[in-house]
């Protein structure tokens, strides 16, 4: 099943044929299956493009969830540089200004457990 879109021209009073699609008072309804390249053009050119909501089902389909990726923060070894320890301490929630003010040994003592 193809999707239809309402397209609004940047100039609200635009009427006529633009990219093969007829506009009346700056608005057109475009079928994705027949005007795919025109839709691409409209999006790039700043036209407002929105899916047409089915009157039988007024609830638009929610977008697919974006997967959450959790990154593991690895504690540096004791011989690592102060810069590595600062980056680690900040990554695990340390205040950047406070961590920067500490010595390498203090950072290891506070965050290296």
Summarize the helices and strands and which ones pair or pack.
Elements: E1 4-8, E2 16-18, E3 21-23, E4 27-31, H1 36-44, E5 48-51, H2 82-91, H3 96-101, H4 104-111
Antiparallel strand pairs: 1-4, 1-5, 2-3
Helix pairs in contact: 2-4
Describe what you observe in this structure.
With 113 residues, the protein is of the alpha+beta class. The protein folds into two domains: 4-51; 69-113. Helix content is 29%, strand content 18%. It has helices at residues 36-44, 82-91, 96-101, 104-111, and strands at 4-8, 16-18, 21-23, 27-31, 48-51. The strands form two sheets. A three-stranded antiparallel sheet has the order 4-1-5, covered by helices on one side. Helix 2 (82-91) packs parallel to helix 4. The chain starts with a strand and ends with a helix.
Strand content: 15-25%
Distance between the termini: 58 Å
Give the total of domains: 2
- Poorly predicted tracts of residues: none
Order of strands across the main sheet: 4-1-5
| Share of helical residues | 25-40%
User: Given the helix and strand composition, which structural class is it?
Assistant: alpha+beta
Secondary-structure element order, N to C:
EEEEHEHHH
Which outline best applies? elongated
Largest sheet data: 3 strands, antiparallel
Q: What is shown here, in short?
A:
The protein is an alpha+beta fold and 113 residues long. The chain is 29% helix and 18% strand. The longest helix is centred in the C-terminal third of the chain and has 10 residues, at 82-91.
Structural descriptors:
two-stranded antiparallel ribbon; single chain; 113 residues; 5 strands; 2 domains; alpha+beta; 18% strand; three-stranded antiparallel β-sheet
């Amino acid at each position: 099943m193809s999707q239809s879109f309402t397209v609004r021209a940047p100039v609200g009073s635009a009427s006529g044929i633009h990219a093969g699609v007829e506009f009346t008072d700056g608005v057109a309804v475009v079928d994705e299956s027949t005007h795919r390249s025109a839709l691409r053009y409209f999006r790039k050119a700043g036209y407002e493009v929105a899916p047409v909501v089915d009157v039988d089902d007024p609830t638009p389909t929610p977008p697919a969830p974006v997967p959450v990726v959790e990154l593991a923060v690895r504690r540096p070894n004791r011989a690592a540089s102060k810069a590595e320890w600062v980056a680690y301490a900040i990554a695990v929630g340390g205040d950047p200004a406070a961590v920067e003010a500490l010595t390498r040994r203090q950072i290891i003592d506070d965050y290296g457990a």
